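Continuing the series of single-chain predictions for the mutant panel. This is the parent chain; the variants come on the following pages.
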Amino acid sequence: MEQQNSVIRARITKTHVLIEKAQDDYTKAEQTCYEDAHMMNKSVLELVKTVQAISDQLQPSKDRSQLHYFSHLQLGDYYDVEEKFSSEIDGFFRKQFMQLEKFSFSSDKDNIKSRFDLLGIPRPEISLIRGPSENMTDTINKEIRRICNIYPNSERSLITAKINHEYTTASKRALEVKLTALRERKINWIYQAKLKEDAKKLRSSSSIVNLFKNDLLPLIQQNRLRQENKILDCYYGLKLARKEHYLDQLNQVLEQVLLQKARYEFVSTCCQVENENQLNLHHLLTSVYMALSTMKSQSKSRQALLDNYTMANVEAKNALSYKNKFLKNLKTILTSATISDDIDNAADLLYIDNARMKGVAESLHATANKVIDDLQKLEQQREMKLQKMNTVIQKGIHQLYHESQHQGIPNTVLVTPMDVDETLSKLNDNLAVLYKKLEGIALEFKTRKVRCKADPFLEQERELFVYFHTNPTKLEQCVKTVESRVEAKKIAQ
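Parent structure:
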């Protein structure tokens, strides 16, 4: 019986250790679960706030200053203005380039030829549409080339003639002065000064001639193209002026059209970018919604599976994916509580069979019921033992205090059994023997003390005796030193 009780107590002790460990693990898991739930709630609240802020921004506002997106703007007025502008540009273009009225010299418009007809040139609206004729273009090109070839030569001949004229005139005046001086034979200082001045002019004229021959002719040849524009007058000047006028008008039209195109591309780009960003935002929100829906369905399925811990309504033919982390952990918990080679070998499978899971759950449920029954039996046995122990204690108390209560002395224990008397007598004898030994030790102490005081040669013993009372540690060290010396002498002998 005692051995069985010790085994039960050992099992209960081990059970308490396992229960405490399980409670600690449960507390940690519960704390982790609470932290995860708190983080999830915080994330969901932030997500709700973000979605609410996005929804508020996407809602159109009546105040135009509070609008954030192009889709909220009323672009009908913009398109109406642009369409009106396009029609105005089209009308201006047709009026300037395709429907030019005739230029007249008087206010009378009946059968009066324009200035273009009088000059014998085609009207500009026809030339702009059809372009100049080939014969006319060839004639103009030939004339321009002829003038370009003649003009530099004529200019050079003109400059050469002017220089020669000036040179000849100066030479003539100098010769006339010399002839006059020779005839009068009066060469005084006045004529000498004039001769010097004429010599300077002659030298300057010579330098001008050299400059013309060396530098001026190449410059004239290089600037021939610039000089050509000066001779284009009459028909060509009118044509160039008309062309410049039309080009200016056309540049103005093109500038306005390019500005309109830039405005349209700006609006289109803004709308396109906004549409792409809103589409990406829609994809993100849809992904979040689908992820939350999947997590919700998984949570419901897990809760249903946990509620049905016996797996009573689960069909055996269905298979669960081993990739599911929750099912994997659940299977680990179930298989760790059972001992079955078949189920242990199933840990490496890709899919979990519901039949095996159901068998494990039933086995675990049966084991739990058995443990509960064993605990109830142990509890009943413990209660019975406690009642028996309580009865024995009450009986002992009654025996110890019964006689004292009859004598009128409460709370007084009268210990009169034989075993107690024998124990007390043995204790007294032992105390008497110890007292005698202590008296012998004291007498020997006094004798040694007197002997040490009387004998002057027992100095070491006196010191050891003093150490015996004052410093036991020092006494022990001295004894060890003496023992080591004795052993050393023995070894030396």
